[in-house]
Amino acid sequence: MNLIELFLLAVGLSMDAFAVSICLGLNMEKYSKRKSLIVGLYFGVFQAVMPLIGFKAATLFAVRIVAYDHWIAFALLCFLGGKMIIGSLKRENGENCGCREASLKPAQMLPLALATSIDALAVGISLAFLRVSIIPAAFFIGITTLVISILGVKTGSVFGSKFSSKAELAGGVILVLIGIKILLEHLNIIG
């Protein structure tokens, strides 16, 4: 996986966190850089740790399924991307984005950070099958999510929630396209 693919993967993974960050920014009484940084750190740390957990879990049983690894990576990325696309379309059709009054207390932020990083766990499994160097990849994913989440809080405080569904849609499409690319490479359809 090259740097551009890793960047696109990181951006795709961070779109859930971006959408939630917009909601949090929208519901903050007053925007501050400190609040943005706190949100970014929650989401960034979880997005960095979850691929490590997935990677470690996959390496424990990778020997048994190496012949099918590209299919597993393809299925996981397409499933996650599809889920994000469907969620964005539901939100676009007027369903609530699940935003509450913004609180940065661990009781609210930990579940949000966990919920937005579950897909990163599955991606960690995929990265194990692709034999990616996980520490730099996880760090890159975490930093990307941190920056995008900070931007999401600012965006929410300025523009409101009308962009959150489009961001999630873009993230879903990116994950599906990466999954298709992985499958096509392993089937030797593209180089």
Describe this structure in words.
The protein has 191 residues and is mostly helical. The protein has 6 helices and no strands. The protein starts with a helix and ends in a 5-residue tail after the last helix. The relative contact order is 0.28. The model has no long low-confidence stretch (mean pLDDT 82).
What's the Cα radius of gyration? 16 Å
| Total count of strands | 0
Structural class: mainly alpha
Low confidence ranges: none
Write the element-wise H/E pattern from the N-terminal end onward.
HHHHHH
Figure out the total of helices.
Answer: 6
> Major sheet: size, sense and barrel closure?
none
User: Which strand-content bin applies to the residues?
Assistant: under 5%
| First-residue to last-residue Cα separation | 12 Å
Shape: globular
Mean pLDDT: 82
**Helix content range:** over 70%
What topology does this entry show?
Layout: H1 3-26, H2 33-65, H3 69-92, H4 106-129, H5 134-159, H6 164-186
Helix pairs in contact: 1-2, 1-4, 1-5, 1-6, 2-4, 2-5, 3-4, 3-6
